[in-house]
Amino acid sequence: MAAKSAGTDATDTEQPAAATDAVQPAVASRSREGGAMSELKLLRRLTRRPRLRLFVEPDPSPQLVRVENRPAMVYSVHVVNRGGQTARGCTAMLERIEYWNGAQWLRHPGFGLALQLPWRAVGARSQIDLASGAVSDGLPLVMAFRGERLVRIVTPLRISSGILLEYPPGEYRLTVRVRAEGKPESAVVGRIQVRYDGEWDRIRIRHAR
Q1: Which pLDDT tens digit goes with each residue over 56-85?
Q2: Residues 143 and 151: beta-carbon distance below 8 Å
Q3: pTM, to two decimals
Q4: What is the pLDDT of residues 31-63, one digit of tens each?
Q5: What span, in angstroms and rounded, lies between the C-alpha atoms of 76 and 25?
């Protein structure tokens, strides 16, 4: 009888352990499913958010406009939204201007503050909305008047407010940041190289290396 009692005790002790072992794979499976769902939600959120890209056309053509009744050539870059969500309230800022001194790029001392760029060469337009897959008509960057030997930053400002807006012939590198309103993760930064030889219709712009 003692042996039988001992056997019963052993059986009673082992049975809950077996049940616990059976439950563990189910718990692990639910945990994996929860992790997979979280990753899927994150992936959907990332693909749906705005994704902006700044680019320069391979052979950009300037736009002839009249500013204060004077003919000028305007040179632009473009922004595309490759995300799955509309990028609303997109703004563009010129953050830095550098010049090439023949050996290296140096920050231009005449440009110490960030400057908002307009989305239209004539008339101020500070924001635009870009639907998913849409490309901006253009982000005007620099311009030159006929008969002058100065390249000018496109801005609605009439007074420089301590910012140098016109530059002599040379090579310049401009740092531009574009972002959607309320979406800091959508921000894109590009560096654009501008080569100006003094001719208003022969300015060359491209992505800086």
Answers
A1: 998 888 999 998 889 999 999 999 999 999
A2: yes
A3: 0.74
A4: 565 555 566 554 455 557 899 999 999 888 899
A5: 60
